[in-house]
Amino acid sequence: MAADPDGRSMRERMLAGDPYIADDPELAELSLRAMDLMEAFNSTSARDPRKRRRLLSALLGAVGEDTEIRAPLRVDYGAHIRVGARSFANFGLVALDVAPITIGDDVQIGPNVQLLTPTHPVDPGLRRAKWEAAEPIAIGDNVWLGGGAIVLGGVTIGENTVVGAGAVVTRDLPANVVAVGSPARVVRTIEADGA
């Protein structure tokens, strides 16, 4: 296991948002574990909800009560993803959890949404040397991410916000707004109903 001059492992560097080498043996083993659990989850019938829930709980860092994630699901490690209660993710969620991904309660995620925490250096030499970094993603309670939306690392989306289908979220979005486009921009405010 490689370590930096401060004695931190590549996983500790990764989770701190510092540059790290992705093909570190410890990270490779964690990734293989996630791939095994993903394969099992993605091949388990929807008619066996207990087994699907057990596999999802083993794969992800936390899964709230009455949360459903439809297969196929793709993650890097899984262990850095926390999903609140009563949330729903439709088919094809890609959640690359090199940094933590936090999804609140009552979140609705459309098909083929991508939550992408990894970043890569612009410098070609650093990329060739396999250096990477990552920034966390936080999705507030009662957010709706439309189909095909992409959320980049370092983004926080406030509660009750709606992100339109196909939008690319490159910056934080406040609570109670609708955002669309690429890059996503706020087009209106949502009146809170207290429900």
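That was protein one. Protein two is written in the same sequence-then-structure order:
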Amino acid sequence: MPDDKTVRKPNRYAAIIENIFFSHYTSGAREFQFAREEIVEVAAELKIALPKNLGDLIYSFRYRYDLPQRILETAEEGLEWIIEGSGQALYRFRLAKLSRIVPNEHLITIKVPDATPEIIAAYALTDEQALLAKVRYNRLIDIFLGVTAYSLQNHLRTNLKGIGQLEIDEVYVGLDRHGRQFVVPVQAKGGSDKHGVVQTHQDIALCKAKFPDLVCRAVSAQFMSDDRIAMFELAVQDGEVKVMEEKHYRLVPAYEIKSEDLALYNLRAE
């Protein structure tokens, strides 16, 4: 995760990633590898300071910023360059189908009684932490997926063969009334963060490797305007990330949930 706000200017990172890209790219190429050490070498060559966490540069272009225009212009129509893990301290640029997952503003918002402890709301340090806490304390995974779920671990970091190091914001395990058991990797997106096709692929790959007997249901949560939380269930189909389900929630005091709200929810449940 990013850890040094003083060097997060995208123009610095853009200069480094652009240099690395064109040192490997040839016309018609659809994928190629590069090593983490190249980030250090190029930064030194360009006299650019780096954060202690070198992964911040990769993270930024996966989830926050668009790649430099010169790189974007090399992609075929309908495709985009993504950066994947390719092994220990290795990455891969790969052309993939253009994927943009954004909340549907036309969905209704479901009001949920806010069970977030006030002290947690007061001291959460980042959008991501605040979002994960609200999802956890209000049992939004249970409500959204219709299962009983329990937080197993947050910020799970591990290594996976062929991918390298990866991190999942939070992992839940759960079960339904039939006894089926699930593993739920959760992405938390706040601010300008984007839903990442790479992260969804990695989350699902990790669940298959570490929890082979459990059904994987990948979830992404995102803060919206007006204190709303968008919840997505994501799946991979033909190499693309698809939305299987989307709901919007607003955490409110119980007295703000009116009879007309309940009537609407009852109608939807029929």
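The chain has two domains: 5-97, 109-269. Keep this in mind for the problem set.
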